[in-house]
Design goal:
The N and C termini lie far apart (about 45 Å). The chain is globular, with a radius of gyration of 16 Å. The chain has a 6-stranded mixed beta sheet. The chain is an alpha/beta fold. The protein is about 20% helix and about 20% strand.
Length: about 210
């Protein structure tokens, strides 16, 4: 199977163009909708994903987010059959960055969720998927891309919280899990503790 075609943004010097990030490969997903009126984009949610679990670099995540995944290609996919989901961004193991939904729009990544006293986190968050298994570690190029992307998001949007899927949907989701290095991310961004999930950060020595 071939990977879906992607487009490139015009190189005009602008870091953002209508919610699309200049340094990402664009592969637009139909799985999105407008945010509620007045939604404040102040939360970044970090996920992990691989399809099938533990297999990387096969293009299946891109296919899932664009409704092109062959449900019969692997037994694991039968449990996902008909699922329509998306994330704003996806970072592969080698650090390549893909964008599926403009940041001004609502991607379908969080599901049932609550964080900082608000429910329905899809309404006002930006989702970033890291290629990997929940609980396992991630690669240095992924952190390099993630840190650069988060820095750009903090500059562009009123981001005041960065959390994992496990923090906005506790008991239902466990990603990115214990293998994710919150210390590295915080140190790279030089942001105060209030931006991060305190309990996990303190476990890692922040």
């Amino acid at each position: 199977m071939t990977l879906p075609e992607h487009a490139a943004l015009p190189v005009d010097g602008a870091l953002w163009q209508d919610g699309w990030y200049r340094h990402a490969r664009v592969l637009a997903s139909p799985n999105c909708n407008p945010r509620p009126e007045g939604a404040l984009i102040d939360l970044v949610v970090i996920h992990s994903i691989s399809l099938p679990p533990g297999e990387f670099g096969n293009g299946n995540v891109q296919r899932l987010f664009t409704n092109q995944l062959d449900w019969d290609a692997h037994p694991y996919f039968q449990g996902l059959c008909g699922l329509k989901v998306s994330s704003h961004f996806f970072i592969s193991r080698n650090g390549a960055l893909w964008q599926f939904v403009a940041c001004g729009d609502r991607a379908w990544h969080a599901g049932e969720s609550v964080y900082r006293g608000r429910s329905q986190c899809n309404d006002d968050s930006i989702g970033i998927e890291l290629e990997g298994l929940e609980g396992n570690t991630f690669e240095s190029p992924q952190y390099e891309t993630l840190c650069s992307l988060c820095a750009a998001l903090v500059q562009r949007y009123p981001i005041s919280h960065i959390a994992g899927h496990e923090h906005i949907a506790p008991g239902r989701k466990n990603d990115p899990g214990q293998g994710f290095d919150w210390v590295l991310l915080q140190n790279s961004l030089a942001l105060p503790d209030r931006y991060f999930p305190i309990a996990d950060c303190k476990k890692q020595g922040i």
